[in-house]
Each structure stands twice: as structure tokens, then as C-alpha cells.
Amino acid sequence: MQRAIPIMFIAMSLIPAGDSAGKILTGGLGVAPVFVAWSRFAIGALLVLPFLPRGTWALMRDKRLWLRAATLAAGITCIQTALQTEAIANVFAAFFIGPMFSYLLAALLLRERITLLRSALIMAGFIGVLLVVRPGMGGTSGGPGLLFAVAAGLFYGVFLTMSRWLSDVAAPLALTFTQLAMSAVMLLPLGLLNLPPATLEVAGLASLSALFSMLGNLLLLYAYRRAPATRLAPLVYFQLIAAVLLGLFLFNTLPDTLTWAGLAVIITAGITSARLR
């Protein structure tokens, strides 16, 4: 577990970096969200391709891996859809139901051990998330699109649990390639229907989004090979730390007092839960 904690921290920092590049594409350059999702998977698969271990292609026949990839593709598409119509605070609050859902699924389906204290800590982490995002406090209430954010969180919770379940099927590099390649195949028609203008700026940001996301998910798989999903679930909240810092440097969004308080709660709950035996 001592090795899994820093791996998770790095992974949860890289994934928001990929999302930030995607936000610049959709918000600043008008690129369709579904193209951002598809290009992330397609480019990520190409980046991993030269390093595939032997036997990777045989995994493409595993129906369980296709199901896992489908949950990832659906989750990314849902959250991009939600962000088109809903306030980002509401979307993040709904999306972060994912770690709690993963915690429950791991206990019910994988028979991983849960405790009252760890359950309380993951709830504390979610309270910290609410302090950071404060849904509904910006003068807007959640609309129908918020259902897509909830769906994205549920899909992500399933994806996290399946990542733990299938962590021993193959090496992390092989599993990373399958989730990227399979998701790219599923979203291929929608991606091709929403091609943006071919510019160096679009290509560069799409490549950065894919690279950061691929590395983050690869490290996530390494972490899940070392610790149970019920112990790692609270650490998923760590990506909010990177999100706040990226918002400060890229979008000039300065965190306020409640944001810092929420981050302190998230860090404390996550580290305490991870160190429990």
C-alpha cells in the first residue's frame, strides 16, 4: 500500500491534466466533445502500441475487457455531454459518486473487506468534494444534463472495480492498450462525424490530452495490482488537487477558503483510509 499511494497520487494528477487539454479544445477551439473523447483513446492506443508485451492481441477476444472498455467510453462521453449544458461544479459533484460506487461494488462483487471507519472516511472525502465544488451555490440549479454526470460517475465506479477485478489478467501495459483500442473502436463513427479543422494547435492539444490520460490510467492499473479497490477508492479524490492547481495556472481560477478546506478534508481522509490495515 505504501507503494500504491504515490502511484495513485501521480495518476490522479495526470488524468486532470488530460482533461484540461480537452477543456481547451472544446471550450476555446470549439472542438466537439465526442471527438476529444475518441481522439484521446485512438492516440493513446497508438502511443502504447510500440511497447506491447507478447500476447496482448489475444486479449482482444476477452469479452470482459470489451465490457470494461465500454464503461470507460460511456463514462467519458456522458461527462462531456453533461459539461455542455451544466455548471462544472454540479457536474463534478455528481461525477464523484464514482469512488463511493466503486467502494460498494468491490465489497459486494469482489468480496473485499470493508470497515465502518473506512466507510466513514470515504464519506468524509465526498464531503470534501462538496466543499470544493459547492453544487447549486453559483445561482444555478442542476438541469436534465446533470443525469449524464451521475451516469458518468456510475460508469467510472464500474470501470474502477473492473480494473481491480481484471488487474491480474495481463500486464498493465496490455490492459491499458485494450481499454484504449476498444474504446476507440466503439467511438470511431462518432469521432469521424465530428472531425475538427486539421491544425497544429488541435493536434498538439489532442496529443497532450491522450498522453496524460493514457499515463494516468496506466499508473492506475499498476496501483490496482498492489492494493484492494476498497482501499484505493478514496484516493481517486486526489485528482481534485490537480484540478484546482491546473485551474489556477491555466484558467486563472484562484481557490477560495472553502476550496482549501475541502482539499484538506480530501487529503486527510484519503491518506488516513489508505493507511488503515
TrEMBL record:
InterPro entries per record: AA-Vitamin_Transporters, EamA_dom, EmrE-like
Keywords annotated in UniProt: Membrane, Transmembrane, Transmembrane helix
Primary subcellular site in the record, as a coarse category: membrane
Transmembrane segments: 30-53, 65-83, 89-109, 116-133, 145-162, 169-190, 202-223, 235-252, 258-276
Domain EamA: 30-133, 144-269
Location of this chain's protein in the cell: Membrane
Annotated GO CC locations: membrane
Membrane topology term: Multi-pass membrane protein
Domain of life of the native organism: Bacteria
SUPFAM superfamilies in UniProt: Multidrug resistance efflux transporter EmrE (SSF103481)
Family: Belongs to the EamA transporter family.
Protein name: Threonine/homoserine efflux transporter RhtA
Originating organism: Sulfitobacter delicatus
